[in-house]
Amino acid sequence: MDNPLRYQMTEYDCGPTSMLNAVSYLFRRDEIPPELTRNIMLYCLDCFGEDGSTGRRGTSRMAMMFLSNWLNGYGETGHLAVSSRYLSGREVNFSQNGPLRDALRRGGAAVVRLDLEGWHYVLLTRVEGGDIYLFDPYYHE
Description:
- With 141 residues, the chain is of the alpha+beta class.
- The protein is built from 4 helices and 3 strands; from the N terminus they run H-H-H-H-E-E-E.
- The protein has helices at 14-26, 34-43, 61-76, 99-105, and strands at residues 110-115, 119-128, 131-135.
- The longest helix is centred in the middle third of the chain and has 16 residues, at 61-76.
């Protein structure tokens, strides 16, 4: 990783920030095409606030599913060796042979949605023994 991980710029952009952090974690700066960054930002922040303003409720699960599918298609074009799998329901667990642990053990990363008194996306980067390494893009002073 030659790119530092980033913190959110607003109260609402944990989803795209975590996805960009995953890309930064997995690829060198000179490997990352600009359309990848553009599309991550374009497809996220799709939830409307109570007053109807765009993005003020963050990024939906549907947007992340769409982004996961887009990443797979993009990887198949040969522009970047990237693949993604969207997990939901019972698939999201840390069982020894589960897909999350498997991805982390093989050097991958996972963007996960947690309920921390409200929905929030974070980045998982590795697993060692019983420890799972997590980067929270929300900056706490």
